[in-house]
Amino acid sequence: MLQKELDKYIICGGIPKVVNDYLLNGAISLDNFSLYRDWIISETAKNGKREQVIKIILERIIASIGSDVSYNSFASDSGIGSHNTVYDYLNFLEDGFIVRQVYNYDYHQKKMRLRKNKKFYLNDPFLFWLLRWWIGGDLAPSLETIEDSVLKSQLMENICFLRLYSMFADI
After folding, report:
1. How far apart are CA 127 and CA 79, in angstroms?
2. Residue 74, Cα to own-chain centre: how many angstroms?
């Protein structure tokens, strides 16, 4: 019983409009995907950012959920060129409540190490599916889609992070 509810959360997250759509129709409508994609595009344009760069960075994020990543590797792997551009865009995405950056913490020195690799998480499981649809054209999520153990483990790590962040905002 709980597994079924967790699977629903993995698919539709916690955005009320998306949850209602999923519960009423058994799927997330294209209208909801388009609505939230258009919101990201609109905020990107309002803030003077380039949509293509946002898509490249978001593609890298969904491919690396749960992995340590540096701004330099982001820049070189994606062809953006400058780690400063990556830093600027990632901060924009964080300010827009799309992603969270988790900095490396040195337990011996009891401080964050800002220059070390970071982890990036999405602020809602629905954003993962939205980005896969927008960037890669993947179909909407289904219970069959989340049977992939690697994918499910990444999404579960993301969900665990979100829960810990809600409890201890200073992660």
Report:
1. 23
2. 15
- Its pTM stands at 0.89
- What per-residue confidence (pLDDT) applies to 140? 65
User: Would residue 71 be called left, alpha or beta, if left means φ above 0 and alpha means ψ between -120 and 50 degrees?
Assistant: alpha
Phi/psi for 119 (5° steps) reads: -115, 150
Q: How many CB atoms lie within 10 A of CB 121?
A: 23
The amino acid at residue 27 is: A
Residue type, 49: K
Region class of 20: left (phi > 0), else alpha (psi between -120 and 50), else beta? alpha
The answer to whether the beta carbons of residues 169 and 123 sit under 8 Å apart is no
CA distance 132 to 127: 8
Contact 5, 116 (CB under 8 A): no
- Residue 145: band (very low, low, confident or very high) from pLDDT cuts 50, 70, 90: confident
What is the reported pLDDT for 169?
Answer: 75
* Residue 23 clears pLDDT 80, i.e. is over it: yes
The answer to whether the CB of 8 falls within 8 A of the CB of 129 is: no
Residue 111: what pLDDT?
A: 82
C-alpha to C-alpha distances, 63 to 22, 46, 128, 169, nearest whole angstrom = 25, 26, 10, 24
Closest by CA position to 141, among listed 1, 2, 21, 39: 21
